[in-house]
């Protein structure tokens, strides 16, 4: 690991803040409107869907997940991990793809995790991995196929998706190394070292060594599941660079979605004809 090779390492602290402060880039009015859309479109998507909301997946933390869009036989499952820079949002804001997927024979699982700063990032990662373990162990009881798990997430959820893609954690939980069959991180953070120099570290409290150890790009290992690494055309420059670098390391597909920004790109998962939905469905259908 080259300690000097940080994404944006040549930038000043002020320039790094611009690269990663996508809320300020969007503006408070638009940001607020989009957060309302997250909840409203999630509520609409799950209305009347078969499923099992509010299941405890991790006894240690008591955190819960929702299962949506099950059918008569076990279905492939898309586990979506919400963003919010590890300190905001919830599973209730994050099911806007459930209706679209249900109509195409795919179930959706949306886990909560304890938000920072109440939980450390190490604990948040542990919880998200525990949600994958729950799907693998208990999925069939709820109409899920544990052999067809695809993980995705947006922003901080893209980082957490990356931490389920990498090697080195599955064996301790009694899981097969390939438990995550494919992945689709949106606007992910794959090298956390730049965040030690921006406002996000107020609630993460990372030093460089911890940030490196919690970075998918730095702990990736040799195995590579199929992945569509997705970023918006008008995303924050830090997120664009992180996605480009991670794709160069991981492989798979780098998908830059035109005319979208950091917050609205993932909402396209509610539209079956959108570019991101078509790529997600292709990932799932290839399993």
Automatic annotation (TrEMBL):
One of its GO terms (molecular function) is hydrolase activity. Keywords: Hydrolase. This is Alpha/beta hydrolase. Signal peptide: none annotated. Residues 72-196 form the BD-FAE-like domain. It holds the Pfam family BD-FAE. The keyword Methyltransferase does not apply. InterPro entries: AB_hydrolase_fold, BD-FAE-like_dom, GDXG_lipolytic_enzyme.
